Predict the structure.
Amino acid sequence: MGYNSKSIKTKEVQLNQLAQQVKTLDTSPLYQVRMENNYKPVFGEGNPDATIMFIGEAPGAQEAETGRPFVGRAGKHLDSLLHSIDLQRDDVYITNIVKDRPPDNRNPHVTEIEIYSPFLREQIVIIQPKIIATLGRFAMEFIFKLFQLPLYGKKIGEIHGTALHAFSELGETTIVPLYHPAAVFYNRNLEAVLKRDFEILKKLS
């Protein structure tokens, strides 16, 4: 996918408008958490015309403090994995399903996902990534369901690193489920697995 300056500018405008809607989303129960803790919404960042879009679950504390996705320990590992396939953060687009931090890093509630998921859907429509790489089980299950993939319900250990063609009203893309970069902190054996899976992203892109 070649980058087109006019295309990028148009997408930037659309994404900025969408980000502004998230910023003022006071109907979300997480908006109050944001205000009480002086957090920032974490909309997403990267190349609006990116070939690869990474999707995680929700921002953590460091992400909510900076307003940027994947900037903590797991984010540094993600940067390293990108570097291993000759990519930088500016080459890809990184976001989460939920755009505000749930308290105590708990999993987002169903109602919270319902509130934020339309913004993720619109991000996918605007960016039209060739590849969607999900980070972790939660994001994998959500995207599988969103694209109505028949593998919904499979365990990440069974299908990580598998390239799955998907087509829906959101567009045509290849979905590659990956372990979350933080998983290696609990299981060092997954470090080699993640590196191999990232090589698959390189081949696809």
